[in-house]
Amino acid sequence: MKQFTGIGQTFEHLRKSAESGLSIGFVPTMGALHDGHLNLIRRSKQENDLTVCSIFVNPIQFNNKEDLAKYPRTLERDSLLLEELGCDIVFVPEADEMYPESEPVDLNLDFGMLDKVMEGKFRPGHFNGVAIVVKKLFDIVQPTRAYFGKKDFQQLAVIKYLVKTLNLPVEIVPCETVRDPDGLAMSSRNTRLSASDRNLAPGIYKVLQKVRMEAGNISVNELLTWAVRKIEEHPGFRVEYLEIADNETLMPVENWDNLARDVAFVAVFVGDVRLIDNIELF
Ligand code: AMP
Questions:
Q1: What topology does CATH give the domain 188-277?
Q2: How much is the pTM?
Q3: What is the pLDDT of residues 110-125, one digit of tens each?
Q4: Are 193 and 202 in contact (CB under 8 A)?
Q5: Which of 11, 34, 79, 96 is least enclosed by beta carbons within 10 angstroms?
Q6: DSSP structure class, residue 217
Q7: In the CATH scheme, what architecture does the domain 2-175 have?
Q8: How far apart are CA 94 and CA 82, in angstroms?
């Protein structure tokens, strides 16, 4: 496996690969890799000649300085995992080169409501930061396909929109959420949970599963009220939002008229760790 830091070097290497007809699969990550990430790498390897993984804790998508400072950084271990899986290139850019001071950091893209609801509402500027880094990374890596997890369903919707609206020549491949055996969605943030919170955290997905079972049986409002109460029964759990929304527009729904398109989304503070999860209701 090759490790690149420089943007120019990475661009040139991959440009030559693409010119010689190789397909490039790309998995952008912020590191602290777990099986959710590794699954994306496996999928990319199955479908492409070359697989590139980027590891970059993108400062401009954090609206909370403490969250950025506490984000786990485990580059050595990540590299070993990627090597074992047969990833071809790991790209680890420097923040200074990704964001030279002179450059204005704004795409000026209108995402409609996609970046204003749920995560967008509670993490202002977050998706602007995500869209900017993904656009930059796509320009550098020039991937044939890029792999994203449904764990970050709203992010996936924003990226699909970015690709469509800018006509970017890349296929976005959504991949299923990978969970621990007890149902907790894998996340780099899980390592920050206390032992007792880690034991209770799978309760979030259990509630989402129950929401799926009851969807269509009782009103959306009643179901949401029940679900919030159930999650907050655990001491120290606070629901930031719990919504049922359309899988494309992400607009909240008030009835079950389009159940086949509905997704339940949740963000929960477990102590000071913020976890997100979602479930498709069909
Ligand atoms: P991150 O390092 O958190 O920015 O995530 C990098 C990529 O991995 C994103 O496309 C995430 O959606 C995806 N990802 C993170 N956790 C999971 C998971 N548990 N299952 C599937 N994909 C995931």
A1: Pantoate--beta-alanine Ligase; Chain: A,domain 2 (3.30.1300)
A2: 0.97
A3: 899 999 999 999 999 9
A4: no
A5: 96
A6: T
A7: 3-Layer(aba) Sandwich (3.40)
A8: 19
